[in-house]
Design goal:
single chain; Four Helix Bundle (Hemerythrin (Met), subunit A); 9 helices; 2 strands; about 65% helix
């Protein structure tokens, strides 16, 4: 893997498991549970200059990345709730790159995003721990991907998403010696 590819995908691209076990689900829930505190510990005391540093050339600034995480995880949480209360609902995709250019992603303090992640993940994890195996089979339809996505697959993706973006920021910190 070349340097740019490694900076884009420090953990590799998301690979969905063919069979997702109860242990996989538990591991992913734990990742979601610990993520807000872990992220806050990493970037909560960073200066504006550090937050306004791109994690890689052509990539977002750390500030945008933190705000992206709150946006993306909020969308995922809503998709989970839709799948649990409706029969294979069609979700609404969104343009995450354009969202990251809006002022509430580009120039605001990261404190509201960190607070949102903390509360959102607390609610999300509470619900996830209550789900049955059958409920994890609930699906939503993703029109851009033209397929049904089961909640257990989405959970796997969002656990990877946490680790993926955390690695972006952690690698930048190491590279800069912060």
């Amino acid at each position: 893997m070349d340097s740019l590819e490694h900076k884009k995908y420090p953990l590799g691209e998301f690979q969905n498991l063919v069979a997702i076990s109860d242990l996989d689900i538990d591991r992913c829930i734990k990742t979601l549970q610990n993520f807000p505190g872990k992220l806050k510990n990493l970037v909560g005391s960073w200066s504006d200059e550090q937050l306004d540093t791109q994690y890689r050339e052509g990539g977002w600034k750390v500030r945008q990345l933190v705000n992206h995480l709150s946006d993306s995880h909020m969308m995922s949480y809503l998709r989970f709730k839709l799948a649990l209360t409706e029969d294979n609902p069609t979700i609404i995709p969104y343009n995450e790159a354009k969202w990251a250019e809006l002022q509430d992603s580009f120039s605001i303090s990261i404190k509201p995003a960190l607070q949102l992640l903390k509360g959102l993940h607390e609610r999300w994890v509470f619900e996830l721990k209550a789900l049955t195996n059958r409920e994890f089979e609930s699906t939503f339809y993703h029109p851009e991907q033209n397929r049904k996505i089961a909640l257990k697959e989405s959970l796997m993706f969002y656990a990877w998403h946490c680790d993926h973006h955390y690695a972006h920021i952690e690698n930048l910190k190491k590279e800069k010696g912060w």
